[in-house]
User: What shape does this take?
Amino acid sequence: MGIFSKFLSKIKATETPNKADLEEFYDALIAADLGENLSRAIIEQAQTVKAESAEESLQDVLISQLSKKSRELLPDSGLTVVMIVGVNGSGKTTSVAKLANKFRDEGTVVLAAADTFRAAAVEQLQTWGERLGIEVISGKGNSDPASVVFDAIEKSLASQAKFLFIDTAGRLHNKNDLMNELGKVKRVAEKSSPVQEVLLVIDATTGQNGLQQAKIFAEAVDVTGIILTKLDGSARGGIALAIENALDIPIKFIGTGETVEDIVEFDPIKFVTSLFS
Amino acid sequence: MFDALSARFAKTFGGLRAKGKISSSDIESVLAEIRSALVEADVALEVVNLFSDRIQTQVITLLPTLQAGSNQAQAIFDVVNLELTAILGSESRRIRIAKNPPTVVMLAGLQGAGKTTLAAKLAKFYKDQGNTPLLVAADLQRPNAVTQLQVLGQQLDIPVFAPEHGNGSGNAVHVARDGIAHAKSKMYNMVIVDTAGRLGVDDELMDEAIAIKNEISPNEILFVIDAMIGQSALTTARAFEEGVGFDGLVLTKLDGDARGGAALSITEIIKRPIMFISTGEKISDFDIFYPNRMASRILGMGDVSTLAEQAKKAMNPETSAKLEEKFARGEDFTLEDFLEQLEAMAKMGSMGKLLSMLPGAASMKKQIENFDEGEIVRTKAIVQSMTPQERRDIKVLNGTRRSRIALGSGRAVSEVNSLVERFSAAQKAMKAMRSGNVPAGMSSGMPDMRPPKQPVIHKKKSKSGNPAKRAAEERG
Assistant: This one.
């Protein structure tokens, strides 16, 4: 059942929501990981929603809390460089493969295997590259991720590729030296080409820690958008909405499975509507 | 992170001491604070309410017995902490060893939880205890999951059974079955089976997990869960429990700063023990579960013991060993050692965050927020401007030397003096620790790194009639 549906039916029945209905609604929002701040903000506005236009009003309430920024991948006329970052296990490598597949019709796509830390991480991306027939640039074992990225950009520019997607190692945001390393990777990249997008991958099951993740990653590398993954599970991904609301970072894509096609552009209205059903 | 529960209580109880009598609405305020803190920590809502009800009874019984003017906030906090620790540790037990080897351990969980890395950690843990573990690569779904396990096995010199390279093909049930047979034929006494990540709502994959279980009859099925998981933790755990079933839990990525409320939700409702924790990407980042540390963490108090361990880890192991040797030999802790520690702490994380992990951080909130990260940089500059002799023996630091150091590091002489003073105090404390008197508020091996309270300076009027001498005295 959607998080909004119970509340909706209550309003439609009784015209104005009473305290118990609002509390129940609040609990439903918390259960979807929207967090206390965003949930409270929604409840406040929900109090004035009228029965006739309940569904639209609630949709508007939620959408008004989200980022107004563009949800499109911001391509360049030349090479578009996209860095994929996030904590361990969030789904970065799979997302890189999905993005590569999605954008291949627009021109040559190149992948950079800049996770030089995790055992067999490079091989994992190379397997995707083989499956998709897309070139993967990597370095020798345990090489410096910044040099892999530098190399990848040079080669992408030389071959006039349209897109370069950079897979980076998973890292927890509270690891200072790893966040510094990420900042350095971006700065090295920017010596050769602007980095048009830095997409933070957020697992839809993440709880309130997701806010801290987003905050610290944004400080380190200026995150331009979110990829919300694993939405095919039971989690509603409310934390991504909380991040939009608190940090004004737009969700650009959502991941809905392990196959390469399981990616969609984020549509706030569609997403919010699905929360109702 | 600063909203530690104790600080919240202190606020709520602020006006109560004067009141003397505590009303039911006061108790409700406190319970609301507890619930809010637990929700913030990602404890499942239904568990938050259950817990709150249980605490309410205890609080109502306790409060009237407290002396008027005593610290009610602390008393309630202790009740919460104790109850939390009790629930988290209530099911604690070790891994069951099979009567007839091999002991079979099967890992299950969501995608990205950390199962493959954990499999290697478990194998190493048990190998170090004298066992002969075999790793079985039954994740045939994730590209190169098998390769990953093989690489790890090679690094650790632990055999890996991987007949299929996976990447979407092969039969995981057969691999698991053949893995056990292989272990028996080679007389390995333990088998750790890594499986593919799967959703609780994916019936097909859950059936596969059940098939694996039925085929190999594991002694333990460990449900591996990421400490940062939010409210869906309980739903997912229930799905796994009702599907493949599990005997124990492993909580991963505890080196992050997620509060880990899922630990409480699952122990409370599903009543399975948390057996191990994963605290990093290295194989050695593995430990048994400590309920009291987890309770602290969930309550937002941070985890001082883990912090101390991380501090030790962040320090170059050679440095730590050198330091320990020095201690053992009765040698003094020098400014060089101090500098090494500063550098290690900078590596570990921003000072503000570190400080926030200390208990009572909430009451230090002002000082922490005003803590200047640049402090470490400036301190480093001063120490680096010293000669090795000066670093080893601060007693030689006379006025001339201090002036030179100030000039060389671009700092004021007063800053140099302040550092020497603080360091001298730290040295004394280290000496005291060595002789067994551990000063309050310190974890072992770490000098008091907090910035000094701003001293109230009573400027002594110079007694000298000689203007030059007076000026010199004032310069310090």
